[in-house]
Amino acid sequence: MMPSGTGDFYLYLHGEMRRESQTRVGDVVRLSIEFDHTYRNGPQHRMPEELERELSADPAAEGSWVKLSPSRQKEILRYFAGLKSDSARYRNALRMISVLKGNKGHWMGRDWDNGK
Questions:
Q1: pLDDT per residue over 35-66, tens digit each?
Q2: 82 lies in some domain
Q3: CB atoms inside a 10 Å sphere around CB 107
């Protein structure tokens, strides 16, 4: 759920969930939520060796990594866990290091500047 800025929230539903709930993009829905007691916060995926190696070799990038929120770190590690090939992991590790070093860039669906 994403805040809309007015006190309301946007709920992004996966295509399969929209089909099952017979809703479309832009529909207004009512829902209830419960706390999942089995949820574990923080990163749940191990940092890939390529990424750890690249971070430890660059203090500026490592410093930016540490400053990222736990949820952003978790999102990045989940993204890396889903990559299938070594070349994709390496290519994305280089892009991540570049933006964490402060270079402007677009990676993981967002614009980065000054390591944020």
A1: 888 877 666 788 888 788 889 999 999 999 99
A2: yes
A3: 15
